[in-house]
Each structure stands twice: as structure tokens, then as C-alpha cells.
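Kindly review both lines to help learners:
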Amino acid sequence: MSLAIAAVLAYLVSASGLFLRLFNKLDKQTNLLLGTGGLAVVLHAIYLFGAFDLSHQHSYSLLLVCNIFSLFGSVLVLIFYSISKNLFAVPMVLLFTAFVCLGNFIFADKVTSSAMWAIETFLHISLALVSYGILTLATVLTYQYSFLANRLKHHDLSVLSLPMPSLSSIEHQIVGLLKVGSLCLATSIVTGFLFMENFLGSGQAHKTILTIISFFIFVAVILGHQKQGWRGKIVVGLTTLGIGLLTMGYFGSRFIREVILPAS
């Protein structure tokens, strides 16, 4: 548990410093703060491997799934920053992961199954994880684009001094992430139909339907941008709806089964 404590503290230090850096309240120190975030990710991962049995599919409770998704999200934004130099999403994701990691102290987690992962199941889950992380990052960047565009529309030129890419660069990043994320999501859906038993059966239908609807929403955003020049509020609204439905599909049944029903 000491590893989890250290991870939470490292996440909080990194996220707080990067928020200050993002709005020019802290001079430089970006690499040090990102390194602290990377250390938090390593500590968090070591803790998860030691505290949970990751080889059994039904041991993946809501708490563990949230840990894995947030951990992957942190890795993704750190890699994305190293490529794009776009800092906007990093402190938000690290802060969210800190609170998820903190949840390990509050909520008890029990391992109850001995069913091993099949390679096909692992492939499907991995693609779902990757697509969710990429599409969430794309959605966060739509808010960054909207924020910058709105401030420039109101002639607030101070935003130009912030450590953020240009609007055209952010737009390019959003579209690229949407394309890659949608491709991964489509592949995840296909592998689900091919390899997962009862993919549209009881207990899985809502997840599959919401995932497919989300896929078409993200594809609509891509086509709308290319054909109609969609930007700003419509892109923010649709990507938020898409990621919201995807979140409901991935986490909704677990939340009801593990939180709502036991409390009732």
C-alpha cells in the first residue's frame, strides 16, 4: 500500500505543477514534472501487479478496471505530449488517475474467479482499452480547441503566450486521434463478434449497442469535419456524447452491479 501512497503523491505533485505551467504560473520545470508523472505511473503499475490478480477475468471489478483505464490514460497522454508537445490533457488525466488510485484506500476489492483470459479475449479487451484512451484524449482536446478559439474570438491575445500549439495543430491532432481511435474501436467490435461468446446476449447487449452507436458518432464527426468543416461546439458536443455512451457501455453495468445494488 505504500507504493499506492507514493503514486498518489507523485501524481498530485506532477498534476499541480503542470497546471501551473500550463497557465504560465510556473517557469519551465516541465521535464521534471513530467518525470514525476512518469514515476507515479511506474509506482501505480507495480502496485496493481502486486495487489490484484490480473490473470483472471472476473477479478476485474469496477475499481480495478478504473485503475487500469486511468493508468493507461496517463501513459497515453505522456506519450502524446512527447510527440505533440501539447500539454493540455496531461495534468487533467494525471489528477484523475491520482483520485482513482486514492480509491484503493477507500473501497475494498475482492478476487472471486479462476477463469483465465483467452488470447482472443485479451485482444478484444486491449483494443477496447486503446480505443477508449485515444478517443477520450481526442475529446479532451476538443475542449482545448474550443477554449482557445473562444478566447481569440473575444480578442484575448494573452492565450497566445500559453504553452499550447496553434489552433490548426490542435485540430490536426484531434482528427488524427479520432481516426486512430475509431479504427481501434471498430476492430474491437469485430473481434468481439468473432471471438466473444454471447456478445449480444444477456448482460452484454447494452455494452455492444452503446459501443456501436459511439463508433458511428465518432465516424460522423470525422466525416462532418472533412465534408462540412465541423468545428467548435458541434464537435465538442458529439465527441462528448460519444465518449459518454462508451463510458456507460464499459462501466455502467459494473457500477450498477457493484455500487447501486449492494447499497440498496
In short: The longest helix spans residues 119-153.
